[in-house]
Amino acid sequence: MVGQPRSYSFDIEQLLQDGVAAITADGACQVSGAAKILDLGSATANYSGIVIIDVQAIDIANSDEEYFLLVQGSNSATFASGVQNLACLPLADTAVAKGGAIDATVGRYELPFVNRQDDTIYQYIRMYVDVEGTSPSIDFTAFIGQASGGIMP
Fold this sequence. Notes:
Layout: E1 8-9, E2 15-17, E3 27-28, E4 30-31, E5 34-35, E6 38-39, E7 48-58, E8 66-74, E9 84-92, E10 107-114, E11 116-117, E12 120-121, E13 124-132, E14 138-147
Antiparallel strand pairs: 1-14, 2-14, 3-13, 4-5, 6-13, 7-10, 7-14, 8-9, 8-13, 11-12
């Protein structure tokens, strides 16, 4: 069953990945050619958000490509230490997808996250991509969105 698509407000300051170039190796997501790190404002405030990921291209042609799109937190403004995975969106060919998930496709994905794990609140967040397989290549944009009407799914 296909439901009514949700719409999200976009704030350029909440952009985590600009989709300018395809990602073919592990690394932090970028905006304007530089790693993008967002400051949530406080190491003592809980934050719940949803990352909107618009995949424009994904290579699963060799049936061994896997992509793990991670929201990571840290209390280091440079992510030099104390990095924690807060949420993960796995995308892959069904042949290698964990649990036999369906083939990944282009389209919109919604990845909810919180900045608190194991009683630690992380002030800074970023997106990181872990790629695996023969010739991985993925192109996407990602931003923290606010649901229309202020209601989070």
